Structure formats: C-alpha cells, structure tokens
From TrEMBL:
Lineage: superkingdom: Bacteria
Transcription regulation recorded as keyword: no
Name of the protein described by the UniProt record: IS21 family transposase
Domain HTH IS21-type: 3-65
Source organism: Ponticoccus alexandrii
Matches recorded under Pfam families: Mu-transpos_C_2
Keywords recorded for this protein, A-Z: DNA recombination, DNA-binding, Transposition
Family note: Belongs to the transposase IS21/IS408/IS1162 family.
Length: 509
C-alpha cells in the first residue's frame, strides 16, 4: 500500500517520468505502467493452493453431497454426520474443514444452476410466556419390527426454545388436542399465544389477509387452555421459523439415531425423555445458559396448567342388527339392547367410547390400520351378545363373538354342547358374569373342570361358596363301619296314601 501510494504521487502529482520512478523504486517500468494503467489503489494477491488433509477424501465427500441432494430434506445427512463418517474412513481433520468444503460445494452448485437464495427476514424476539409455535411433520420409525409412517407434532416455546416432539399415526383433531395437552404438561404451563400455519384441523377456510374461519372444536380447545391462536400467511413458514428449524434439527438429533420400539407409547416416552435431555445439552444462543436454564426462568410466566381438555371428536352412528358400528373400515360391537338405534361415538387417539342416552355404553381400544389393502377388522366383546343368546341359545355354537371367550369358558362349552340342552345350560353359566365378578365365575368354572363335573349345578354350587367365603376344598368323609346300611330302603309311595286317610276318614289332600 505504501509503495503504491508513492508511485501514484510521483506520477500523477509530481509528473515524474516512469524511468525515474523505476530508478527510485527498483520496480520494472512495465510493472509501474500496469499499476498506473489499471488504477490500482489496493494490491491483491492470489492465495496459493495448499494441500489439505481433506484432499484424499474430496471426491468421496462430493459424491455424498450429490447423493444427499437427491434425497428428501427429511432424510439428508448433516455436515457433522458426514464428518463423523469420514473419521470412520480415516480422516483426522477438523469439522470446520469439512463444513467449509460443504459451503464451497453448495455455492459452486448454486452458481452452476444460476440460483440464489434471495430471502430477507427480520429477527424476532419473544417475551417469557408470550407464545409457542406448532407444526406437523412426517417421519418414519421402526415400531413392532415394521417401518411405520408417522405424523409428528412439534411444539416449541418461543422464548426459552424448549420443545416437545410427539408421534401419532394420524393428523386428526383428537391427535392435535392430545399433543397440546402433553406439551403443556411437559412445559408445566400454558403460554399466552399459539402460532400455527393454516392446517385443516384448525382452519376451515382461509379468508383475505388475516381473516380465518376457525374450526369450532379447535376454538373450544383454545378457550379451555386460555390462549389466543394466531395463523401465518399462506406459504409463509418463516413466520414460525423456530419450530420449522426444530423439525429439521429433530431428524438428525432424534429420528436418524433412535432405536426400535415395541409400540407407539414406548416411542413417545423415548421422545419425551430425549427432548428433555436435549434441553440441557443445547445452548440457548440468544440468552446465557442452556435451553433448560431459560425454561426454568420462563416457567413463572406461564399460566398454571388446567385440567386436560376432553379432546374427542364426535360422530353419530347407527348400530346394525348384528350389534356393530363401523369406523375407519373397522367394526366394533355394541350391547345388543342398542341394536338398530342411533348412538354417539366419541373418538380419542387411543380409544373409542360409545355413548347413548347420556351414558357411556361401552369402550373399545382404537385400531388404526394404515394399509388400505388389508380388509377391515371386526372387534367383538362377547358380553354384548349375552342378551341375544339368552333368547337364541343355538347361536352360541357358531357365534363369532364367543370365539374370543376365556379359555375356561371355551373348554366348558366344548363339554356341554355334546349333550342335549347343553347350549342353554352354557348360556345360563355365561350369564352369571352379568351379576358376579367375571374372575370369580372363571374360578368356579376352572374348579368344576378340574373336578371332572362340568355342569351348571356344580358351577353354581362352587360360585356360591366362593361368594359366601365357604371353603370349597372340604376333606372326604369316610363313615364308620357301624353306620353302614345293612338293608337298603325301598321306595314305596303307597305309604303316603295312608297319611291321607285316618280312622276311615279322608283328609283333604
């Protein structure tokens, strides 16, 4: 810089010839002419290319980056994961060298495709307890030995950035309500505002500007938890950028490293514990300390947690003559007294509750089948058909609901149906569960089977002893020899005629 300034001063201000400037500086006249002709004020030098530890792996890393570009965003590896994979291949360089290579590779690819990211955004800041952000994503996990597609709810506090991830099989109203309850339970309070996109489970119709026709059940949920819902502009995901980033980060921090699970409940328990562990491991960034530290300070600004919202979706159903209702291609049994009548079906994430005449009639575990190639299932409760077989005992022999009876009842049925009238006798034994504890009846049936006396009379005798607390294991009594009859009595009903007459007079019978 100093010699260049001197050259320009001598040539432009003092009007010295180039030969004299060359003599004074020792530079060639061609170099001085090039500086003056180009108008260079600040000299620039090309950085020499130096060998890097990454050079032997550059081709491999470029291939990885190219293959990752062909994948969906959900399945792409991060630069940190690629660095770990290179270390496994023998690379002993730093992560910074790999991330610099990735940035340069992506920049070159953008220039080659003549594309650039022109988005410009304003940083947002939230007060403690002010808001949370919500979003859905689709991810996969191994559940019960099968790769299962999941609808994942992401809820994130905007101030402390504490987050919860919870997985479901469907993205419906009852799943949405359940996700909010678990999030507020984990956060130990409710923020004042929720930020959403225009999902169908919350918005029935998007109007002009910020006008929205909000779903009635969704509004009932927000009123119960006392927070104000806010909705982003269409296709403006950056308005809830924190939870959008959480969706992306969760794929590398959770979904790509998680183990296999036996069921969905085990997966959600693992996700909850993993989220809390990440709170402690992740620095907040904008505030000192970790996410867990800032969340501890924010808890006092959250509204205390109310009772859980009864987040069911109601549908009106009519019970078929075979005592079944249909939901999601599956059939569920209802007590026979409600056959051919309308009932109300309350749909929860994990169960179905049938309500009639203002009372809960029965309840079933919900079955969710993702594959439409498989036929629908029929879920029976054999108790619901007892009123039918009491009038039609012959239906017990091949009745589909009674295939699922406990094993003791089925063994007794096999023995009773071999003799005349056994079907009605079996129905009367099964009907005992309407008045007594089913486990006590099962115990009496098991004792009758073990004793080799599978009859209704013996089962009733044992049941009454169990109910009354009378011992059922009385020892066998051996009478003494002097009490043994020497002459068996004869049955003579004619003796009773003598009781009807006395002294020649006939008494009224």
């Amino acid at each position: 810089m100093d010699i260049l300034s001197v050259i320009r001063g001598w040539a432009l201000r003092d009007k010295l010839p180039i030969r004299e400037i060359s003599r004074r500086t020792g530079l060639s006249r061609n170099t001085i002419r090039r500086y003056l002709r180009a108008g260079i004020v600040e000299p620039k030098f090309k950085a020499p290319s130096r060998p890097s530890k990454l050079d032997p792996y550059a081709e491999k890393l470029s291939g990885w980056l190219l293959s990752e570009q062909r994948k969906s965003r959900k399945e792409r590896r991060t630069a940190k994961q690629m660095h770990a994979d290179l270390v496994q291949l023998g690379f002993d360089g730093s992560y910074e060298r790999v991330s610099a290579f990735v940035r340069a590779w992506k920049s070159d690819r953008q220039r080659a495709q003549n594309t650039t990211d022109r988005g410009t955004f304003v940083p947002l800041v939230f007060k403690p307890g002010e808001a949370f952000q919500f979003d859905w994503s689709e991810d996969y996990a191994i559940i019960g030995g099968e790769r299962t597609k999941l609808q994942v709810a992401h809820i994130k506090l905007s101030h402390s950035r504490a987050f919860l991830v919870r997985a479901y099989l469907l993205q419906t109203h009852e799943m949405l309500f359940d996700a909010h309850w678990h999030a507020f339970r984990v956060f130990e309070g409710v923020p004042g505002r929720g930020i959403y996109d225009n999902m169908r489970t919350a918005v029935d119709r998007v109007g002009v500007g910020k006008k929205r026709d909000v779903n009635a059940r969704f509004m009932a949920m927000t009123s119960h938890y006392v927070f104000e819902p806010g909705f982003c502009n269409p296709a403006a995901g950056w308005e809830k950028g924190q939870v959008e980033k959480n969706v992306r980060d969760a794929r590398s921090r959770m979904w790509q490293v998680m183990p296999t699970f036996s069921d969905l409940d085990a997966l959600n328990r693992w996700l909850e514990e993993r989220c809390k562990a990440l709170w402690a491991e992740t620095t907040h960034g904008a505030l000192p300390g970790s996410i867990a530290d800032v969340w501890e300070a924010e808890k006092s600004s959250l509204m205390p947690l109310p009772t859980a919202f009864d987040g069911y979706v109601e549908q009106r159903k009519r019970v078929s003559p075979t005592c079944l209702i249909t939901f999601d291609r599956n059939c569920y049994s209802v007590p026979a007294s409600f056959a051919n009548q309308p009932v109300s079906l309350h749909i929860y994430p994990e169960r179905l509750v049938i309500v009639a005449e203002g009372h809960v009639v029965c309840e079933h575990q919900r079955i969710i089948e993702r594959s439409h190639r498989q036929p629908g299932r029929v879920i029976y409760d054999w108790h619901h058909y007892l009123a039918v077989v009491q009038r039609k005992p012959g239906a017990l022999r091949n009745g589909a609901p009674f295939i699922e009876m406990p094993e003791a009842f089925r063994q007794l049925q096999d023995k009773l149906l071999r003799k005349p009238g056994g079907d009605r006798e079996m129905v009367e034994i099964l009907s005992l569960v309407l008045h007594h504890d089913e486990q006590v009846v099962l115990c009496a049936v098991n004792m009758a089977l073990q004793a080799g006396v599978p009859t209704k009379t013996h089962v009733l005798n044992l049941l009454h002893r169990l109910v009354d607390g009378t011992p059922t294991d009385q020892p066998d009594v051996t009478p003494p020899s002097r009490l043994v009859l020497t002459k068996e009595p004869e049955a003579n009903v004619a003796r009773y005629d003598g009781l009807r007459t006395s002294g020649g007079k006939r008494h009224a019978s």
